[in-house]
Each structure stands twice: as C-alpha cells, then as structure tokens.
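For reproducibility, we list the full input for the magnesium ion complex.
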Amino acid sequence: MYKHKERPRPIEIKSRKELALMRAAGKIVAEILNDLQERARPGVTTRELDERAQKILDKYGATSPFMGYPNSQERGPKFPASICTSVNEEIVHGIPRKKRVLKEGDLLKIDVGANYAGYIGDSAWTFPIGNVSAKAQELMHVTEESLAIGIAQVQTNKRLWDLIATIQDYVEKRGMNVVREYQGHGVGREMHEEPSIPNFLDEEFDKRPANIQFKPGMTLAIEPMVVTGTWETQVLGDQWTVVTADHGLAAHYEHTVLVTDNGPEILTLWK
Ligand code: MG
Ligand code: MG
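The corresponding predicted structure, in tokenized form, follows.
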C-alpha cells in the first residue's frame, strides 16, 4: 500500500546486519500469512484474523507498522488495526471488523507488516473463501503470476522499468488492469522508502519514476494490485478502504524482495 507522493530520497542499501533483521521481520510476516491462510474460512470475521496476527507479532516482540499509520487526508483517522483485510471489490487498506463475516465465494486480500527491531517486512496475499468464481480464480492466478515474473526481473543488470513493464504487460495482455493510484515501494527502517514502484508506466515519459538500476542491498516491496474492470479507485467513508470505482473484483499479492548479486531473494516467502 502506498499512495503516490513525490519526495525523492536516496535509495537505502542495507548492511549485512540490517539484512539479518529484515530477514527476521520477513519471516514473521510469512508465518502470519501462513497461519491466516488456514483460518480464512466462511463464518470467520476479519477482526478475528487481525487478532490472530497481533498474537503472532506479540510472540516475537514485533509490532504492526500499519497500526496508527497516518491517513493521507490531513485530519483523517489513523489506521486502527494490525493487518489490512480487503474483500471482493475492496483492493487495499480494508479495516478488520467484528461484523465483517467472511462468506463462501468472497475474495479476501490480507496485507501483513511486521516491524522487528526497527526493520519492516511487508507482504500481501489473496485468499479464496470456500469456492470462488472462475473469474476470481483467473484474477488470482494472473496477479500471483505477475508478481512472480516481476520479481524475476530483480537482477543487477536490470532496471526498475523492466520490472514494471513486465507486470503491466502480463496483466494487460490477459484483459485485466493494474491499479494506478497505489503502488509498491522500497521498505526497511520505514514502511515506505524510495523507490516508488508503480505497476504501470505512464504514457508521459516525465511522469515515470526514475529508471534506477537494481543494486545489491536494496529491499523492495513489489505489489501488483490487479482488477477485472477499470483501474479507477475510490476511498470509502471510513477514509481507508480503497475500492474499485466500478465495483469490479480486485486481487493483491506482495513480497518484500532483496536484490542480491545472484538475483532476487524473497524475504517474506511462505509458500
Ligand atoms: Mg507494501
Ligand atoms: Mg503491504
């Protein structure tokens, strides 16, 4: 999750010591997603999933970087939960609720972050609740695959636009769209570091992000958000939940990835 903001700072190169903490944070995130996958069933509330995630964070002395995250609207409420749970047409930033009972056929996106000893892991996954439609299954497949082939571009002889174009082309060739108003990001001591990693390349050249070359020690949260309809979004009255403007279905997959001399190392790998 990250709304586009223009404030270029240098891209952090993590030291070995820092990477040990990034790996530890990533492992906690992976454990949470693995655990929640088992629990995300019809009849379960999104609040119960949130409480479970917080328990696992507590076990490691970790915290959620989402809890208390400032709103993009100046006087908007801070994010009130440990994870984001977004259902069906909700894309990202859904707030877990006691009354949000998951039902057969729902498409649930869970976004998990862990801050461990000052370093952050960030990952999201899409879970079918019971049996979902063929369209939802195809959307999940395309989005997960776009993340995988995007991550494969994380090589020291490649650049940011290679990654972005790979994701965008793959999705659009399958008749779906990437969300344009939210994007991936560098991650480390802050949840949102440089570079911004949109999932599309603007037609206007000067609106594209700097086409930086990948360097060992960069840690990136790569996160395609894909929709079956149009890519325009709206924010609900809770001032957090982002939905598709046309109420089409959305999927979201994200990993925190380290650039190494030997290619990508996924720090949040769990399946
Ligand atoms: Mg993220
Ligand atoms: Mg995330």
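The mean pLDDT is 96. The longest strand covers residues 107-116. Both points were considered when choosing residues for closer inspection.
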